[in-house]
Write a structure and sequence with these properties.
This protein is of the alpha+beta class and 448 residues long. The protein has five helices and 21 strands.
Length: 448
């Protein structure tokens, strides 16, 4: 340690002498007020502010300064802001990456002592009109109960219905799902159905939203009958699904809570809609309660394009115990021309990589999404900057790679074979698609 200190001091003396003879000056350290705050305000404080998911606020120097070293570490290793798509394959509206200049500024600030600088140079802090990430909503729909989550045990999916009492069709421009108690909420999927179209006694849905036209999944992707049953006793479910929940409205998972649709596109919410929530709760050792809410913004006018959400999934797989690199594919063929707006891939904690490929009718093939370092804690709906035009006959293949070995620090048990299942210690191969049909359709007539 003594040698290191002496050597450092010697370098400092040499640099000082050299500057006298050459006239060179050390580069000026960026300050929070002038250079750093604008970067944080633009890229970070939507989450890093009071009441949001981030563990600390970065709105002021006093709040940010204790985290300077941590900020530098996260920026240097590219874990913050969280973004996992490979830039070699596609451009995305919601790309959260910093520019190289922004990264260099934050690193230089932290390594230079994280000075505050002249407060007169500090730009006005951003103001947020609402607790909601999407801004002030037009309507908020809340669960009709505070559901109790026990301290321990396994909970099957719980289903809750929320009447909207809408007197007319509405067009949804943005939707955000906000758990009342995020610590116990693994995920939420919100569906919507018009009561007039609801069929009494309709069967229960699959674990995720089911594929719908124009998506034709390949055969053989259901969970095999030979797969072992879950290694736990059946759990009595006090909130099972009552009927077919309808079309996709929105979802919540770690890192993904809000979806804002591009101008001119929207989801249709029918008059008298009932919102059905599928919620996966996970006990944390402390009994608590949850009342999840859904906020929506309505489109200012009927959209030119109605968007829909469907899913492709493969339940027919096994991840052998101890294996570090198992690949599972799912495939579908389009039976109609369509526009693809976004992709949201999903696995659990053994998932490590994703790739989505389109093979066109002329034989040409391209990777349309690559996620080389998938992170269960930061799931993202990747929204294409230029929506993809996919002709009838295009084959879409989703590929996920899993690490069921001891090298995976998140692996619940590398000594067990793993199959499709709802719980976090099981696995999924699931991708949600936001799309619209290109065939001529009747103009939108929903009132506002």
């Amino acid at each position: 340690m003594t040698r290191l200190i002496v050597a450092t001091a010697a370098v400092g003396v040499f640099a000082a002498v050299a500057s006298v003879h050459t006239g060179a000056q050390a580069p000026q350290v960026p300050t929070f007020s002038k250079e750093v705050a604008p970067i944080l305000y633009k890229n970070c404080t939507n989450c890093h502010r009071p009441g949001q998911i981030a563990p600390m606020s970065l709105l002021s120097y006093k709040e940010a300064r204790p985290w300077a070293k941590s900020i530098a570490t996260r920026v240097a290793n590219a874990t913050m802001p969280p973004w996992h798509a490979d830039p070699a394959h596609g451009e995305f509206v919601n790309d959260r990456r910093l520019t190289e200049n922004e990264k260099a500024t934050l690193l230089a600030w932290a390594s230079g002592g994280a000075p505050e600088g002249n407060v007169a140079e500090l730009p006005p802090a951003p103001t947020y009109p609402s607790e909601w990430l999407m801004g002030q909503p037009d309507a908020v729909f809340s669960m009709q109960e505070e559901y109790p989550i026990p301290a321990g045990g396994t909970l099957d999916y719980k289903w809750f219905e929320i009447p909207t009492n809408l007197g007319e069709d509405k067009w949804i421009q943005a939707v955000e799902v906000r758990p009342g108690e995020p610590a116990v909420v693994h995920h939420v999927i919100a569906y919507m159905r018009g009561e007039a179209a609801a069929a009494p006694g309709a069967g229960a849905p699959a674990a995720g939203p089911r594929p719908m036209p124009p998506l034709t999944p390949a055969a053989g992707m259901n969970r095999p009958a030979s797969a072992p049953k879950p290694d736990r006793e059946a759990v009595e479910n006090d909130r099972p699904v009552k009927r077919n929940p309808g079309a996709w409205l929105g979802g919540y998972a770690p890192g993904q809570a809000v979806r804002i649709y591009q101008a001119g596109t929207a989801l249709k919410m029918p008059a008298g809609a009932v919102i059905t929530l599928q919620i996966h709760y996970t006990a944390t050792g402390k009994a608590t309660r949850d009342r999840t809410r859904i906020a929506v913004k309505y489109a200012p006018a009927p959209p030119k394009t109605e968007v829909r959400v469907a899913a492709l999934q493969n339940q027919n797989f096994v991840l052998p115990a101890g294996t570090a690199d198992t690949r599972v594919d799912a495939e579908m063929t389009l039976n109609q021309d369509m526009t693809l707006w976004s992709l949201l891939p999903h696995t659990h904690v053994r998932g490590r990589k994703w790739e989505v490929t389109a093979t066109y009718p002329d034989g040409r093939s391209e990777v349309i999404l690559s996620v080389p370092k998938y992170d269960f804690n930061w799931q993202t709906d990747y929204i294409f900057k230029q929506p993809l035009q996919l002709p009838k006959g295009t084959k879409i293949r989703t590929s996920a790679w899993y690490d069921n070995s001891t090298a995976n620090k998140s692996n619940p048990d590398p000594n067990k074979d793993v199959y499709w299942g709802d719980q976090t210690w099981e696995e999924m191969q699931f991708t949600a698609f936001t799309f619209s049909l290109n065939a001529p359709t009747a103009p939108a007539t929903a009132g506002q």
